[in-house]
Amino acid sequence: MTGRDLAQGALGCLLGFIVYSLLGRIAPSALLVFNVFVLVVAYFAMTRGEAAGALTGAACGLIQDAFSRSVLGTAGIALTLTGYLAGSFAQRFDMTPLRRLFLFLFAVAAAELAVWMALSSLIYAHRVDSAGGLLFLQPLNTALWGGLVFYAIRRRRERAR
């Protein structure tokens, strides 16, 4: 990873934090069904590999933990692990088709949620509050919105060439 990659990763984390903050202020329940930090981590994992995915995951996870009511580190560990795995997977397979991109984002978001829920339930020694099941919509919504955003970014770059 170069200094430029680190700067872009920091900028991605900052952008994720801004979107997270705005969503929390405008529609707090949207934070249950959409995880912007998963998209930041998945983007860097797809474009720069495992190390960038893990490093971005650690940074985004700590930001998310710092501004939530959970134990510091649960989102950090979950996003670090899924960032590394996403980078490893994305470097081996072509994520260009929209359907494959959606499935990839869904798998990344579902894995992150599963790891976070497992860690949280182990630490708190009780079930995680799923807000009446809304939390389980998070991977689907994150994948849908993320797929559209990533596809739009790709199309814009193709037109700029």
Give me the strand/helix succession.
HHHHHHH
Q: Compute the separation of the termini in Å.
A: 25 Å
Summed up, the domain count is 1
**Helix content estimate:** over 70%
CATH class: Mainly Alpha
Structural class: mainly alpha
Report the sheet-strand fraction: under 5%
Largest sheet: none
Extract low-pLDDT stretches: none
| Rg over CA atoms | 15 Å
Fold-level CATH name: Arp2/3 complex 21 kDa subunit ARPC3
The CATH architecture can be given as Orthogonal Bundle
Number of strands: 0
Overall spatial form:
globular
How many H/I helical runs?
7
Mean pLDDT: 90
Characterise this structure.
The protein is an all-alpha fold and about 160 residues long. It has one domain: Arp2/3 complex 21 kDa subunit ARPC3 (Orthogonal Bundle). It is built from 7 helices and no strands. It has helices spanning about 5-25, 30-35, 35-50, 50-65, 75-90, 100-125, 140-160. α1 runs antiparallel to α3, α3 packs parallel to α5 and α5 (about 75-90) runs antiparallel to α6 (about 100-125). The longest helix has 27 residues, at about 100-125. It is globular and about 50 Å long. About 40% of the residues are buried. The model has no long low-confidence stretch (mean pLDDT about 90).
Q: Could you give the topology of this structure?
A:
Blueprint: H1 3-26, H2 30-33, H3 36-48, H4 50-66, H5 74-92, H6 98-124, H7 138-160
